[in-house]
Write a structure and sequence with these properties.
Blueprint (H helix, E strand, L loop, with lengths): L14 E4 L4 H4 L1 H9 L3 E4 L8 H7 L3 E6 L6 H5 L6 E4 L9 H7 L2 E3 L6 H16 L2 H9 L18 E5 L3 H10 L5 E5 L10 E2 L2 H7 L2 E4 L13 H5 L6 E4 L8 H9 L5 E4 L18 E3 L8 H19 L13 H12 L1
Parallel strand pairs: 1-2, 1-3, 3-4, 4-5, 6-7, 6-9, 7-8, 9-10, 10-11, 11-12
């Protein structure tokens, strides 16, 4: 268990907990701005999985948190009575019990819009790394081998049929980039019905027809485990899967078995069900290119995300509702708490 910080006193400055690992590195002025606003910064970067108990200890006395994918369970929120805002650096908030946050008046913000182009670029990078077998060729050349054809032959992205599961802002940016490769684009998204540029299809139809399946859906109860053994079994043996969405959308075990047994050809994976992935079955496979949840990370996007997260905290402690609140239902309870504390 993490050692609990000293209890706050009436003379203490308000505490903001920062767990996002690159906050200081990415934007030195961010921490300075928080401290100039009279906040005490408690920096505890998330470099591994943390238990709810550990997070509870770190949150002791904190009014705000700028966070990674930390487990804000109902128990954690109930044990953090001073907490007013959770500023998530990124767009996913599936690790936060939003219903409980609404009940206790804790606002949750994201940095939506700050890294969409970066994720789209990385998605294309994984598609190209997979089709052109970049990591395999790199390993071979460094090992003194010069393998260009035969079972080391690469494939083409140009002319492929690409299926996008989820067609929000990132999915649309991926589609925009794919048009330069003369691809046919299929989309499975319950909120999308076609627009003349891409074809709206069912998930099963997409899986059957696509040469590349790329996942861009949010992780919700309805999408957790969306792609399992049965769904992967619908794909072509020559098909590839790309995931820059969320790890829990696809069964890693089912995907690893399919890759190992060459039921599908290749995968490009940036997100995992558990991060870091530890002993994931995907780690030992040559026909998978893996990256450490960096699809949304670039110099420009990180600076923008950090600035937005810091502004969410500064707005909240100043009594203003921040931008990009994903749970506006929490605002009345938050306002009531502030009135009570200021009375």
């Amino acid at each position: 268990m993490t050692k609990r910080p000293p209890a706050p006193t009436p003379e203490s400055r308000p505490v903001v907990l920062i767990t996002w690992p690159d906050f200081d590195v990415a934007l030195p002025g961010g921490r300075t701005d928080l401290e100039r606003a009279g906040l005490e910064v408690r920096y505890a970067p998330r470099l591994r999985e943390r238990s709810p108990d550990e997070l509870t200890d770190l949150l002791w006395g904190a009014v705000a948190a700028i966070v990674s994918t930390d487990p804000f369970t109902a128990e954690v929120l109930a044990a953090s009575p001073q907490l007013q805002v959770i500023a998530r650096v990124g767009v996913g908030f599936d690790s936060i019990d939003v219903d409980e946050a609404n009940r206790v008046g804790v606002m949750v913000t994201t940095t939506s819009g700050a890294n969409e182009t970066t994720v789209a670029d990385h998605t294309l990078a994984l598609m190209l790394a997979a089709t052109r077998r970049i990591t395999e060729h790199d390993r071979n050349v460094k090992a003194g081998k010069w393998l260009r054809t035969g079972d080391q032959m690469s494939w083409l992205l140009t002319g492929a049929t690409v299926g996008l599961v989820g067609y929000g802002a990132i999915g649309r940016l991926v589609a925009q980039r794919l048009r330069g490769f003369d691809t046919r684009i299929l989309v499975s998204d319950p909120a999308f019905h076609g627009d003349g540029h891409v074809e709206a299809v069912s998930l099963e139809d997409l899986l059957v027809r696509s040469d590349i399946v790329s996942l861009h859906a949010p992780l919700l109860p309805s999408t957790r485990g969306l792609i399992g053994t049965r769904e992967i079994g619908l794909m072509k043996r020559t098909a590839m899967m790309i995931n820059t969405g969320r790890g829990g959308i696809v069964s890693e075990t089912a995907l690893a078995v399919a890759l190992r047994e060459h039921r599908i050809r290749y995968a490009g994976i940036d997100v995992f069900d558990r991060e870091p992935p530890g002993s994931s079955d995907l780690l030992a496979l040559d026909n998978a290119v893996l990256t450490p949840h960096v699809a949304g990370v670039s110099e420009a996007s990180v600076a923008e995300m950090v600035e937005r997260a810091a502004m969410s905290v500064l707005d909240t402690v100043s009594g203003r509702v921040p931008r990009n609140v994903v749970n506006p239902q929490a605002v009345p309870a938050w306002e009531s708490r502030r009135k009570t504390s200021n009375a």
